[in-house]
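ugh ok fine here u go
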Amino acid sequence: MTPPRLLGRLRHWQQQASAFGSQWYNAPYRAAIARARRDEEDLFMLLVFAETLGIPNPASWYTLELQPLLLERFHDWHTRMGMEHSPLDSMRCC
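structure:
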């Protein structure tokens, strides 16, 4: 076996071992990490749509540009927050 080929096989084995190790160590915390990520996204959605919900937002000028980008996830967000229908009068998503 040539040295470059042996080196390639060793790198491939090292990558597989690294992937297996990260899955092994992250498995107990996977649910907590997903929950923290979802909480951050919910807070970000609240920040972006705060002005339209009647909550004063000092950064509304900057978050206004993000609203069209987040409209696809808006329905999932307001149902997760416990609102059956869209809280916005100007926008009906369901």
